Amino acid sequence: MFNHTTVTFDDCVLAYDLHEQKYLFISPGVFAVLGITAKQLYQNNSLWDNLIPQKNLAGIKGVIQNLTPNTPVELSYHINIAQHRVKNITDKKTLIVDEGTGHSVLLSEIKEDTSKNHLITESSKIHHTPDDGHSKQFLNSLIDSQTSFLIRIDTSGNYSFVNRQYLKTFGYTAEYLLGNHFSKTTIPQEAHLCQNAFVQCLKNPGKIIPLLHKKPDVYGNLHDTEWELISIVDENGAVCEIQGIGQDITERLKIEAEIKSTAQKLDAFIESITDSFFIVDNNWRFVRVNAAFEKTGNKSRHELLGKVIWDVFPALVNTGFEQAYQQALEKKESVKFIEYFQRSNMWFSAAVYPSLEGLAVFIKDITAEKLAQEEALHTKNSLEALINNTNDQIWSVDADSRYVYMNHAYVNQIKQLTGVAPKEGNYSYLHQGFSKQAIDDWKSYYQRALHGEQYTITLETRDKQTHKTQFFEINFNPIYTQKSEIIGVGCFARNITRRLKTEQELLDQNTRLRNIASLSSHELRRPVANMMGLIDLMDRKNFYNPENEQIIKHLLAVSTEFDGVIRLIVDNTFTGD
């Protein structure tokens, strides 16, 4: 790799100042290869040596001590990384003299070695590569190719080095910055942050000092930046420079702010909903609950968070709740169910959503709805029983004259008339068995009601079995929505044949009574008047008066006439003749 001057972000490259015994540069790819972070290496120089087996460490250090400047050497050996794993690596090392400080810098390029050569006990494992004249260019290219910022500041606070990424991001030139104080790239409001970090580095050689602050670019835009600053000491242990590695975290902070805002909105939503909500991890421990769940479970967050759900609510074991939760967690699939919890005499509707971290559960108390459904069902069944226990015919149609509801009496009546039982969804009075005239008539009846008219008609039909005439009274009532829109017609029919017969009999009886009144007022009045007159002529003091005999004869004649009138009245009362 030393025959070119580029390096990728994921390469593992280390630059170590042998004089100062400090790392000058560590690429981000160090963790992928060595299993340790750049921050760990900056804080502990010996951490890298601890990965190398003792039997190989002395040999490697010997090779380093005998390095010739600008002459790369390739080593192959193994290291012990985390969890007792062994990794074979190749390590190209080049000794470079820093023109600025005169210090010897050990440049190491490390890669995982998939070959079987991993020991350095044989000389064949050490390869010297002729200097191609590009080692220094490689180090400079390595520094300039990073997406991180790399700067150096002398003990007076003046820039002594800036890499290409720093200049590119903020739009400055090296000539504009080098030799000038760092306050030139600091906003006044945060100058004290940079000054405090600078002082801390001077006071604490070798300690990494973090710094977060805003930096302006040449266009006046502010960039949020994150830095790790560390002082560099000379061979006498005195601080000679401060090195900083930084990043532009503006976009990251925006994303974090958006995530935080979204999380806050989600938290507010979860706390505001009336449904109970909780999250358990893969070990069934509560990691999140809302206020509604605290109320439903009659437990505070302090009593829930971190506790195992089966320990807090043992009554859930061997219920539909446990079965659904287990299914969702094991099969990693959403589960929705309705369950009755006998202990609290409540109904719940639950939705369970699995994730890699555990389960999110929404629970809604539907006890009131369930009781209302049961009551509505009971009312419906009772109403249907009532409707179907009457001989009156009840049915309804929609706006297209299709059957919506029919009671048994109506179905039986139509089947008796036509031989075909109607079904819900059929067009009313359009199926086989009705004449064209009947179809047209019923279409007209429905249209009148659909236009808002409420009315009653009487229809005459003939029973096909008894061939007797029957009369039906039918009420038509428009069916309205809450918005006063007509969506159908409700019909109620009853057989009024008996009633009409009774009414006719009453009319006939009234006629006879009128005849009786007429006979009474005319036919009876005359013989009664004659009888009363004859009685007045009778000698009641001398009953044996010869004139009484004649009067009695006339009374007998009047009585016979009176009897005839009474017979006439009786005949009119019972026969109507």
Characterization of this structure:
With 577 residues, the chain is an alpha+beta fold. It folds into 5 domains: 12-144, Beta-Lactamase, CATH 3.30.450; 149-253, PAS domain (Beta-Lactamase, 2-Layer Sandwich); 273-368, Beta-Lactamase (2-Layer Sandwich); 390-495, PAS domain (Beta-Lactamase), CATH 3.30.450; 502-574. Helix content is 39%, strand content 27%. The strands form 4 sheets. The protein has a 6-stranded antiparallel beta sheet with strand order 2-1-5-4-3-6, sandwiched between helices. It has a 5-stranded antiparallel beta sheet with strand order 8-7-11-10-9, sandwiched between helices. A 5-stranded antiparallel beta sheet has the order 13-12-16-15-14, sandwiched between helices. Strand 7 (149-154) and strand 8 form a beta hairpin. The longest helix has 29 residues, at 546-574. It is rod-shaped and about 190 Å long. Residues 1-9 and 116-134 have low confidence and may be disordered.
Attribute tags:
alpha+beta, Beta-Lactamase, five-stranded antiparallel sheet, 19 helices, 39% helix
* Strand content bin: 25-35%
Residue-averaged pLDDT: 82
Can you identify the CATH superfamily of the largest domain? PAS domain
Low-confidence segments, ≥5 residues, pLDDT <50?
1-9, 116-134
Assigned CATH class of the largest domain: Alpha Beta
CATH topology heading of the largest domain = Beta-Lactamase
Helix content: 25-40%
Distance between the termini: 137 Å
In the CATH classification, which architecture of the largest domain applies?
Answer: 2-Layer Sandwich
Based on CA atoms alone, the radius of gyration comes out at 56 Å
